[in-house]
Amino acid sequence: MAPLEAPVEKWTGKIRELKLGSGGRKTITVGGGTTLPFVKFEGAQPHRPAIAIEVQDKEPTDWSEFLVSAWGDALKNPGAWAKKAAEFGADLLYIRLASAHPEASNTGAAQAKKSASEVLSAVDLPVIFVGPDVAEKDNEVLVAVSDVAKGQRVGLGNCVEKNYKTIAATCMADGHVAIAKTPIEINLAKQLNILLSDVGLSPDSILMDPTTGALGYGLEYTYSVMERLRLAALMGDGMTSMPMICTAGEESWRQKESKATLDVPQAWGDNQERSLIWENVTAISLLAAGADILVLRHPKTVVTVKAALDKSF
Amino acid sequence: MALTGIEIYKYLPKTNCKKCNFPTCLAFAMKVAARVVDITACPDLSAQSKAALESAGRPPIRLVKFGGDTHKVEVGNETVMFRHEKTFYHPPAIMVRIKDTASKEDIAKLVDEVGGYQVERVGMKLTMDGFAVENASKDQARFLEAVETVLAKSGLAVALMSDNPATMDAAVAKAAARKPVVYAATKENWSGMADIAKKHSCPLVVRDSSGLENLVALSEKVAQAGIEDIILDPGVDSFKSSIDSLTEIRRLALKKNFRPLGFPVMTFPGVQAKTTEEEAALAAEQISKYSSVVVLEHFSPALAYPLLTLRLNIYTDPQKPIQMAAGIYEVGAPKPDSPLCITTNFSLTYFSVAGEIEASGVPSWLLICDTEGLSVLTAWAAGKFDAERIAKAVKQFNVADKISHKSIVLPGKVAVLRGELEEELSGWKVLVGPMEAMDVGGYFKKTWKP
Question: What residues does B93 pair with on adjacent strands?
Answer without folding.
Answer: B293
